[in-house]
Amino acid sequence: MGSHHSPFRPSRHRRTAVAAAVLTATLTALLVMPAALSSAPQAAAAAGTYLRLAQLIDVMPDTELIVSSVADPRSSVTIAGVGYGSVSAYRRIEPGDYVVALRPKGSGKPPLVSTTLNAMVGKSYTLGAVGDKKSSGLKIFTDDLTLPAAGRAKVRVIDAAPPAPVLDVRGPGGTPFALGLACGAASAYREVPAGSVVLAAGAPGAPATDLPVTVAANQVVSVVLISRGTAISSRVQVDAQGPTAVPPGPVDAGYGGTVGERPGAAAGAAALAVLAAAATGLAVRLGRKAGGKRQGPC
């Protein structure tokens, strides 16, 4: 019987086109995979959990924060003491439940006050020591370290300036920035142009004090308002800065700096080798099938 072509058998052109498409997809995977592998550890690193202390009480001596894990009470860290109006460096901690206690710096006495914290993955927290001569407490502020738009900065205000119970804070041109901000409270973050920004702070209805603040592009900043008597001044604390949202100050090993081989690098290299071998074999088979008389101009 003479040979004949099955109606379901693709032509040589069709087989060549399909094989070429597979080769293109394989080569595309070879190009895309390194970028995907490199972005994964960066995303994981950016998801660290951080904690720091802000001393917002003008009549309290330098304090320190004792952070103890609920799951393992024997595991605790001490966040170095800071003075009035100051903010400590961030300390990286594992996500989980903690008991945080405030005490005078270097003291072995029982804590002045304590509270609980549920530290979530990828969140950063400022624990503010708030109060007066009669009572004190710890207030938890959740920090937003995501970067602002390119060329801009992100600023919030923390009110630690007694004796006024609340302050009105305005931006350039008298635009409201944080009106009725209570002592011991933090405003929301607002984006501002990089450079010199003048904030005006004062009790509602009273003359305001101009507070020039200089911020750089891609910075996240907390402006702490403090007072000596009735005079208001400010301290600028950089929370994070670009090109990625990295909290300044010491952190545990493994975040940034010199690191070893990225997680998944070996598996990624093996996968790339398999894909490369598959692409090479496919190209050889494609060349053999496409050999002989050409069927057209290309």
Structure description:
It is built from 2 helices and 16 strands. It has helices at 12-45, 265-289, and strands spanning 49-55, 63-69, 76-82, 91-93, 96-104, 113-119, 124-131, 136-143, 152-160, 166-170, 176-182, 190-193, 195-202, 209-215, 219-228, 231-241. The strands form 4 sheets. The chain has a 4-stranded mixed beta sheet with strand order 4-1-7-8, with no helix packed on it. A 4-stranded antiparallel beta sheet has the order 3-2-5-6, with no helix packed on it. The two termini are 34 Å apart. Residues 1-11, 13-45 and 252-298 have low confidence and may be disordered.
- Share in helix: 10-25%
From the alpha-carbon coordinates, what is the Rg to the nearest angstrom? 30 Å
Overall structural class, as computed from helix and strand content, comes to alpha+beta
Mean pLDDT: 75
**What is the count of DSSP helices, taking H or I runs of 4+ residues?**
2
Describe the structure in brief:
With 298 residues, this protein is α+β, with helices and mostly antiparallel strands.
Write the layout of secondary structure elements.
Blueprint: H1 12-45, E1 49-55, E2 63-69, E3 76-82, E4 91-93, E5 96-104, E6 113-119, E7 124-131, E8 136-143, E9 152-160, E10 166-170, E11 176-182, E12 190-193, E13 195-202, E14 209-215, E15 219-228, E16 231-241, H2 265-289
Parallel strand pairs: 1-7, 9-15
Antiparallel strand pairs: 1-4, 2-3, 2-5, 5-6, 7-8, 9-12, 10-11, 10-13, 13-14, 15-16
Helix pairs in contact: 1-2
